[in-house]
């Protein structure tokens, strides 16, 4: 783990000084993320650059990357999903300020005038997880309930609405 960053930053001070923080942090520092992983070992790499937006609010530009061990829902075997995300966050002090932000702005609310870098990194990695984890190296899987034989991929498939067309034709 490289430590070129504090645990907490004051976004106003960091933005005024145009500070940049970078490093790696263990996934074990991110409990919400570890709860959905098959293995919580490993590290996340990140870079955060603070600046001031056109309205004078602190802006945090964040890039994160990590290899996350997930369970493939097709093969039921673990695999590594590489998640890489970039985002730009506008710092606000309370939820009421979100109404004042431009529509495209992603807000982050400070906690007692500061933000935790690990929480920002964890949030982005959680947002980057696939809805249904599937290893791209797994060949296409045919699913069956076991009651019927699996369809032969070589056979011609019939349009499921063809029967409806037959019924409409009979009624006329």
What's this model, at a glance?
The chain is an alpha+beta fold. It has one domain (3-147).
Q: Ends: how far apart? A: 75 Å
Classify the secondary structure makeup into a structural class: alpha+beta
Largest sheet: 6 strands, mixed
Q: Determine the mean pLDDT.
A: 87
Tally of DSSP helical segments: 4
**Total number of beta strands:** 8
Oligomer: single chain
Major sheet: arrangement of strands = 1-3-4-5-6-7
Q: What overall geometry do the principal axes of the alpha carbons give? A: elongated
Query: Strand fraction band?
Result: 25-35%
Portion of residues within helices: 10-25%
Catalogue the unreliable spans. none
Order of helices and strands: EEHEHEEEEEHH
Question: Radius of gyration, Cα only, in angstroms?
Answer: 24 Å
Q: Give the total of domains.
A: 1
What does this protein structure show overall?
There is one protein chain. By secondary structure, the chain is of the alpha+beta class. It has one domain (3-147). It is 19% helix and 33% strand. It contains four helices and eight strands; from the N terminus they run ββαβαβββββαα. The protein has a six-stranded mixed beta sheet with strand order 1-3-4-5-6-7. A hairpin with a 6-residue loop joins β5 and β6. The mean pLDDT is 87.
């Amino acid at each position: 783990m490289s430590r070129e960053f504090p645990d907490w930053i004051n976004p106003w001070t960091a933005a005024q000084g145009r500070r940049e923080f970078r490093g790696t942090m263990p996934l074990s520092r991110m409990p919400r993320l570890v709860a959905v992983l098959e293995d919580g070992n490993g590290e996340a790499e990140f870079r955060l650059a603070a600046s001031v937006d056109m309205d004078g609010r602190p802006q945090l530009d964040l890039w994160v990357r990590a290899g996350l061990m997930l369970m493939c829902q097709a093969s039921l075997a673990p695999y590594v999903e590489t998640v890489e995300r970039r985002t730009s966050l506008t710092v606000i002090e309370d939820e009421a300020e979100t109404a004042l932000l431009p529509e495209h702005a992603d807000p982050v609310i400070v906690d007692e005038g500061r933000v935790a870098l690990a929480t920002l990194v964890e949030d982005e990695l959680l947002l980057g997880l696939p809805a249904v984890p599937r290893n791209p190296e797994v060949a296409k899987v045919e699913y069956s309930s076991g009651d019927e034989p699996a369809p032969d991929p070589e056979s011609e498939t019939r349009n499921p609405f063809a029967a409806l067309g037959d019924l409409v034709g009979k009624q006329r």
